[in-house]
């Protein structure tokens, strides 16, 4: 993946969250405050605008850092700092590499997960985006360890994210707004986990990985 | 949607334009998305910055002014402000004595304010202290959860810390009194209807007229429990019992807020205050000061929230100090 | 019904109990059904009495205090007070300089105040002057009709006449300034939802979310015309155009009230004020003072009303004079 | 009719307005503010209480004056002063008569109508209680002129009131709250006219007049 592949990822993610904004917002209305889709459409829209301003010949790392900064600056809510931090951490981890390989991307994805965990304090089982992201990173790493290339690993990550998201349904939330509902939060898909699925699906889409 | 708006996604900016026109004592920077006291920064005075999602008006923008906030950063409706906004507000009010961030305990607010404080310290060399308000007893407090929500106590914190800052107290003292007010305040809210976020266009939840939600927050979210709609006696007793169970009130001098959520007539808020005042008297609690009205709202939600602060003589003195903001004013 | 009440037919009495507990500066006589300034009667000062149906809070009970009303007589919800109440209030505030009755122009209010004034003069020998407020341009004025309704101008009349009375002016002067304010003020309101009178238990009319009522009053009644719900621009323009057609505004210094009807969030009221402020600037009208908020409400009705008063320097001076009431306070 | 017949009239009127309070309130909700039934139930309830306090051996005039005072004091709204004034005027007109005859009652009814007209300023055709009351008084007088006794005249008055009330339906209101609706007030029965029908029906009921 080179810099324009990474830019394509962000653009594709923006498309997917915008197309699904209503569903994300509805998920958030059920156990949160009904703005998750709106937040991400605004934040990723800003990220796309930021990409347009990057100089030619930029690096993958700078693409992710630039997108992450824009997301922090424009999203608001819990998801803005979390996704923005995830992308910035991943970008920093990529360093100056012009075309990171499957392993390097794996390291960056894990750094993104760590960033979300540190900032938000949520662990697996707390019914947040962490459940989807952790499952995605594990699936990605397992695929790479099993010899898969980047496209196949990305597809594995998307599938993993979907499973991780699905697993949030029965959980009682312990972080984020849904936690205020206590036991009433069970039985609902976490909106942030649902949007994480879209971000990983966007990665699989642009790398063309088969499931 | 029964709303007076032009474009649902520009409602906050449009409202800020109205706020600017209505209150010449405020400096509204539409570009930066912040509302600042016209006389800020005041050299040597600790700056007070708060903010959060819009839709809770008059909180926070209506509490900017002499003796209360120096700046507010309104986010989109029910969405925390972004770090850039908070940073701009922090820089605009820093008079060299540091800035206090008053943050309601919602993950989004906490994270965005944390990033902004980091930027302020690292890039702008501004000293920032943060107080996180978490007074809502409907939510269980635990280190394994997001903790309690910040609700009505925010008004008390902003007023009392604002009064101390106005006297020229240093940052640690202002932060300490803000934390003290938060620790001495508990709140509990009840909803009789949902509300509609303009950009979403539909109610945040469904609720039959014969039902109510107990233990709500201020973001149109459902509460902890849905029960049969009760009388004013039942609603107020549920709220005060929950507060008293968490922080025994007997023997205290208190400051009490009976807060309309936005869609409940003032007439009914006074009915609720009447019940609250009897309940408190019956339970050996003195009300030194009270406030009845829609101060911390959730758009047009019907319902009310009760906040009780156990005062000290010093907190009472600071509460009584002059304040001049669009929504709270006395003594000048 | 999404109401915080105990008994639907005792809601006014219950609210007065809450009002009494919340505001020690008021004397609330539950027996007589009146709310009086604690320091009334003030010898030599003209007493100001207003009143009307309840459900418009803070009007009138929230405007009792220094620099504004001496007493208010709240009737049942949307029902004028009875002569006994008005007479009791009149007697309670008479300091020998006479009493001004400020009456909104509704047949019920006018008749009950007229009977009370007759009783006061005949039986108690109190000099009473009456000003009837009729500022609502949605209703055509004619000697063959009930005439215009009294709405937002009531707040202006009570504040400005109250300031003059506080200065010790005689009854004729206080009555004259009250009439002058009324004559210089016009209002127009729009509803986006009906409201529910507690004792009736059902909405006053049906309105689809996609519709609005133009030219409403403050009693939950339908307006002059039902149209497709419009944007903030359309709503505010309709109101200001109607006002300007009746009383040309160009070149005037004005006092403007953008008034929430009870169920419209403050955020949206500021959106409306932003539009109003641009419209007025575009039409050569200066806004000297403004007020945005739910001051003259119709229970939980959604919508807003705009009132514009063409000021004179003297009216501006009196508007700016100190006032200390539960709902309007500045300068002390 | 002696004093206790007049008291029975007021009691019967209180029964009828209370039983029909919901309908009166609904009529008022359509073109007014939805409180007419509540107002009258409260006001006539107070009138009945006031009657209980009258000394034995009181006169018909005092019965009506006492009831009227109570109605003025407790009803509120437009209808309170109007009905209260009507009863007080009628009572004053009866003077000290212990048992007014049909003609004396007719004079009293006309005085009531004049009182309402003077206080409220409404004429016939303005869509108010005046339309019902004027029709009732005219019908009563015509009946008496035609030789009818009090019971028959009272029944004629009730019928006249009903016709007068019915005639308000197509009218555009020029007085009271309904006038604010302008042309939209047409097509609705005036609530005050409807309650006037009940007051005259109560008179017919207690005098036992046949239609
Ligand atoms: N502490 C946290 N750690 C990780 N993710 C979190 C945390 N708190 C919330 N989230 C995620 O954020 C999502 C909500 O995002 P969003 O609706 O945009 O913000 P907000 O809750 O402020 O309205 C939740 O569904 C959850 O997945
Ligand atoms: N000026 C008037 N003259 C005679 N009757 C009137 C007048 N104004 C109102 N009414 C009568 O009063 C009735 C309304 O009474 P009510 O609902 O009790 O009072 P309000 O209008 O104050 O709520 C109307 O239906 C009408 O018949
Ligand atoms: Mg959300
Ligand atoms: Mg949010
Ligand atoms: Mg009425
Ligand atoms: Mg009525």
Automatic annotation (TrEMBL), chains A, D:
Key words, A-Z = Kinase, Transferase
Q: Which PROSITE patterns match?
A: DHAL
CC per GO annotation:
cytosol
Keyword Disulfide bond assigned to the entry: answer is no
N-terminal signal peptide: none
One biological-process term from Gene Ontology? glycerol catabolic process
Kindly provide the name given to this protein in its UniProt entry: Dihydroxyacetone kinase, C-terminal domain
Q: What species does this protein belong to?
A: Thermomonospora echinospora
Automatic annotation (TrEMBL), chains B, C:
Please state every residue range assigned to the domain named DhaK: 7-330
Under PROSITE patterns, the record lists: DHAK
- Return the GO cellular component terms, semicolon-separated: cytosol
Q: Which UniProt keywords apply?
A: Kinase, Transferase
Q: Which domain of life is it from?
A: Bacteria
The record's SUPFAM superfamilies line, in alphabetical order, gives:
DAK1/DegV-like (SSF82549)
Q: Does Metal-binding count among this protein's keywords?
A: no
GO biological process terms on file: glycerol catabolic process
- Do you know which Pfam families this protein is assigned to? Dak1 (PF02733)
Q: Name one GO molecular function term.
A: glycerone kinase activity
- Which protein, by its recorded name, is this? Dihydroxyacetone kinase DhaK subunit
The organism of origin for this protein: Thermomonospora echinospora
